[in-house]
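Researcher: Re-running this chain for the archive, since the previous output was lost when a drive failed. Same request as before.
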Amino acid sequence: MMDIELRSITEGDAEEVYRLIGLCNKPHGFLGPPPSPPIIRTYRGTVAVVRGRILGCALWSLLKTKPVARLQYICVAPMLRRQGIAARLMDAFEGDADGRTCITTVVETNVGMRAMVGRRGYTFAPPSGSTKRRVVVATRAPS
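Model: Regenerated structure tokens:
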């Protein structure tokens, strides 16, 4: 079993996180390019580090105008999937939400992410978007 460290994202992580998001979202028809490193630096987040490399991340924002936490990106490198890392990253996001409603957008074809957030109590709005890349919004009320 690999030693996986979870820690808060730092400004210096932006380039590596950028590459990871690009790698992870290709199979699901990601809606546009990953956010640029300067944009990544504006998010709150947690990274999963294995042997000094960032191989998982979750990026989110806490809305200032509403009691909402929005998960913008979550990804785990393909070779580390199905080991509970995404669930640990979700724990970090939901913990930082601190009583806010949690929302995220999921590409309809990403069945793994849809299953994970469904198990965590998120509900789904009807799909929207083009027929090629339909998305669903998943929401979980504060507990």
